[in-house]
Specification:
heterodimer; A: 161 residues; mainly alpha; 7 helices; elongated; B: 115 residues; alpha+beta; Arc Repressor Mutant, subunit A; 3-stranded antiparallel beta sheet; 4 helices
Chain lengths: 161, 115
């Protein structure tokens, strides 16, 4: 904190800290330039009021009053919402339904692991697992309808190979 | 999810709500003559209506995107400044808003006198 340093350097550092929290667009550069001009105007007004150059401490006071960079950026940036108030009811409804449709089957499958034989103990993919198994067995059975080359039987040959 | 708010919080919320519309009206009125951010803030503060940077600039941007204000960057005192003023649509809207404000004010004064 040497007194020779330009107190306005604090303003640049402050603006850089605000920039960090802003989305990187031209519009936000405008916002930043505007805020920077406001702060410098405040400093000039203070200087002409005091009749001497401003000190670092006085600059820091102005910046503190302006607020924490992250909070200031949050106010200056356009408001972003994941879900707007209009869509919120349907969002909440879909979320409830999805949770119900996932959690209830998963729990019942998980608890019934012993009965089904091939529920894998990995409830999150047991549904797909079951589905794949049945597809495989249907394909296997339909393949088996072809008569055996040696004895013409469709439901399994006595001979091996 | 909703916890009961303290009285101070309730008051603060209501105060901000009450202030929001008034600030818009004050800003639009001030911008009948062209100004840039800092001088606008100063003009409002001189009349006793303090408005901080984080409130004024988003408000100006919103009013501009609604077509009520026009702005341009211009150099003054060796610095680039963004000057704002009412657009023709803004002038029209302000007239309507001021008429509405008059109506509300008159009614509210009557209501308050009855108390």
């Amino acid at each position: 904190m040497s007194p020779s340093k330009n107190p306005l350097e604090l303003v640049d550092r402050y603006l850089n800290a605000v920039r960090f929290w802003l989305p990187k667009t031209q519009r936000e550069e405008d916002v930043l330039a505007e805020l920077g001009d406001d702060l410098r105007s405040q400093i000039e007004a203070k200087e002409s009021e005091l009749g001497r150059p401003i000190t670092k401490e006085e600059v820091s006071e102005i910046l503190k009053r302006c607020g924490m960079p992250m909070i200031v950026a949050g106010r200056l940036a356009p408001k972003r919402y994941l879900i707007g108030p209009t869509l919120f009811p349907i969002y909440a409804f879909v979320l409830k339904m999805v949770l119900l449709w996932i959690i209830v089957p998963v729990f019942s499958l998980h608890r019934g692991t012993g009965n089904t034989g091939h529920a894998s103990g990995r409830p999150w993919n047991s549904d797909r697992h079951d589905h794949r198994q049945s597809v495989v067995s249907v394909v296997y059975r339909s393949g088996n309808h072809n008569p055996c080359v040696c004895c013409d039987r469709t439901n399994g040959c006595d001979r091996e190979g | 999810m909703t916890t009961s708010m303290s009285n101070a919080e309730v008051f603060e919320n209501l105060r901000l709500e009450l202030r929001r519309g008034c600030l818009t009206l004050a800003v639009l009125t001030q911008l009948r003559t062209e100004r840039y951010g800092y001088t606008l803030r100063k003009a409002l503060a001189d009349e006793g209506l303090e408005i901080d940077e984080g409130t004024l600039y988003p408000l100006l941007r919103r009013l501009e995107s609604q077509g009520l204000l026009v702005s341009e960057w211009r150099e003054e005192e060796q610095r680039n400044k963004r000057f704002y003023k009412l657009s023709p649509a803004g002038k029209e809207t302000l007239t309507q808003l001021l008429a509405e404000w008059e109506r509300i004010n008159t009614s509210l004064s009557k209501i308050l006198q009855e108390v």
